Amino acid sequence: MPTDSTDSTEPGGDAADPVDDAAPDGVTVRPYRDGDAAALWDLKCGFEIGLGAGTGGDEKAAQYEAKLTDDYRRRWLDWVGRCVDENRGCVAVADDGDSLVGYVFVLPESLSFVWDAAVLNEIFVAPDARGTGVADALLASALGTARAQDLPLDRMVLDVDRENERAAAFYERFGFTHWGEMVARPL
């Protein structure tokens, strides 16, 4: 499948070129574009609602859903824009030609000191596209973006809920292992 490598020489974007060899037929993994904002937001809502579903009860699910306000949408998409301005490949989308069916968000290199590593901030695949290889292609894109970063530690880290067995199995398949544990409390 052809790739869109028009930005392969753009600063900070060289490893973020699409990784279509890993994508299923008919799906292109490519860098996010401004025109993708509405579709990306729809996927983000699925991501957020999915965080609470089945991994923490009704209260957790309600908290994640409640934050999806118009103000949050505007602020999140502005942040996506700033991150993409810094590193075009930090947000990649899976495009099936009709719609976006997934996305991955690797924090830009300037934020690598948060965890002293590349940070896989979010990855989400629409339910209808799960099990098709889209997630594999998105993660391959994310790893390429991370490999191009100048990191304090040569690692990629992410936060995954221990109760999310599907996600844990996915990351394990890609060689992720337990690396500490995040704890949280209300403010």
Q: Could you explain how this protein is built, in words?
A:
This protein is α+β, with helices and mostly antiparallel strands and 187 residues long. It has a 5-stranded mixed β-sheet. Helix 4 links the parallel strand 4 and strand 5. Helix 1 runs antiparallel to helix 2. The N terminus is likely disordered.
- Cα separation of the termini: 48 Å
Describe the sheet with the most strands.
5 strands, mixed
Task: Name the beta content range.
Answer: 5-15%
Strand order of the largest sheet: 1-2-3-4-5
The helix/strand series, from N terminus to C terminus, equals: EHHHEEEHEH
Please give the radius of gyration in angstroms.
Answer: 16 Å
Runs in which pLDDT lies below 50 for 5 or more consecutive residues are: 1-20
Count of helical regions: 5
What brief labels describe this structure?
disordered N terminus, 5 helices, alpha+beta, globular
Short précis:
The protein is built from five helices and five strands, in the order βαααβββαβα. With 187 residues, the chain is of the alpha+beta class. Helix 1 (37-52) packs antiparallel against helix 2.
How do the strands and helices of this protein lay out in sequence?
Blueprint: E1 28-31, H1 37-52, H2 57-66, H3 70-86, E2 91-95, E3 100-106, E4 118-125, H4 134-147, E5 156-157, H5 165-173
Parallel strand pairs: 4-5
Antiparallel strand pairs: 1-2, 2-3, 3-4
Helix pairs in contact: 1-2
